[in-house]
Amino acid sequence: xxxxxxxxxxxxxxxxxxxxxxxxxxxxxxxxxxxxxxxxxxxxxxxxxxxxxxxxxxxxxxxxxxxxxxxxxxxxxxxxxxxxxxxxxxxxxxxxxxxxxxxxxxxxxxxxxxxxxxxxxxxxxxxxxxxxxxxxxxxxxxxxxxxxxxxxxxxxxxxxxxxxxxxxxxxxxxxxxxxxxxxxxxxxxxxxxxxxxxxxxxxxxxxxxxxxxxxxxxxxxxxxxxxxxxxxxxxxxxxxxxxxxxx
Length: 247
Description:
This is Kelch domain-containing protein. This protein is of the alpha+beta class. The protein is 19% helix and 32% strand. It has a 4-stranded antiparallel beta sheet with strand order 2-3-5-6, with no helix packed on it. The protein has a 4-stranded antiparallel beta sheet with strand order 8-9-11-12, with no helix packed on it. It has a 4-stranded antiparallel beta sheet with strand order 13-14-17-18, with no helix packed on it. It is globular.
């Protein structure tokens, strides 16, 4: 089987962006938020829909809060959006639901539903049956290895894997990088600095590498200084010898 890409010329394309989330529902591909590529990466709060049959775009109302690097799952006519980076560049743990018939937006408060994951971005948030699975991500200055699942009927979280207060074997996921086929999840891409260590180990290794580079640079400078000194001594000796010969 031959695999190839097709670049369709669509009608009325939306603003160029990255760090958005998206889901496919029947013949429509929905995109949410993201960062505008031009103008210093301005956060976006729109919902756009791409029809796969008509090859056309449509802006959908209402607008969501400005966000990027978030995740979206679909269930029973509703979209659930979790986490990401807010308009003020802070990672958040909000969950929003959007009714696809009325386009009513509801924010689900963590105070009402017990256990709640830490805020994060660049995670995997994937739906299967009435559950949305949250994997990995980036929380402020640490990467996460936890796996949660969110019941989209009851709006409650469960911790499946990892310690809620500690995350050592961090894995950095990529939004929209997973899908479920035949009761199996497939993941691609992402970033893990050190699967068997933690972020501090990586920082220490980078510091050691910088120290090694600095040491090599200092050593080269010392060698160059020694060569210059020897060259100077040689020139002085040659001048002295020539002066004595002239006498």
